[in-house]
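[step 3/7] fold_predict: job queued, chain A
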Amino acid sequence: MSLPSVADVPGLWSPDGSLRDVYFVGTSPAHWEKFVWFIQSYRHKYTYDGRITPLPSIESIFANREGSHLLSVVVCGVTINCHFFIPEEIEIDIEPREVKGRKEHDAILKFIASLSQTVGKPALLTPENCVDIPFLSFEPENHAWVIYD
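[step 4/7] structure written:
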C-alpha cells in the first residue's frame, strides 16, 4: 500500500477554516464495535456534554440523544474527533492546521487505512460535510488509495 504524498493531493491540509471529514458509510452496530475496538489502541478520551467519562456501549450512545457525545483520538499529535451523529455512518473529523507536515500526513493516512481495514468499509477523506466530494478514498479489499481531482 503506497501512501499518497501531500503533493499528490493539493489543498488537502490547507487551513481554510473548515475541517476534513472521513466517512465510512453504510455502517451497522457491528462496524461501530470494530471502530471502538480499534480506537482502544490509541490515546483517546470520551466526553458526554463536555465531561470526561468511560466510553459507554454503542447501543447506549445511540439510545441517548439528550446530550453531546465526543470521542477524541490522538494520532501523531493530531486530534481526530467522532461525534456519533448517526448509526449508519461513522464520521470522524480532522483539523487541517494540526497536520504540520509529512510525518503527520503519513500517520493520519495510515490510521485511516488501518481503520478502514478493521471496520471493513471504504474510507472517504473529504472537505467538511462533503461526503460526495472526496479528496481521497481507501479501498480495504485491495489495500489501495484513490486520488480524486
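[step 5/7] annotate
DSSP finds three helices and nine strands in the chain.
Helices lie at 29-39, 58-63, 102-119.
exit 0
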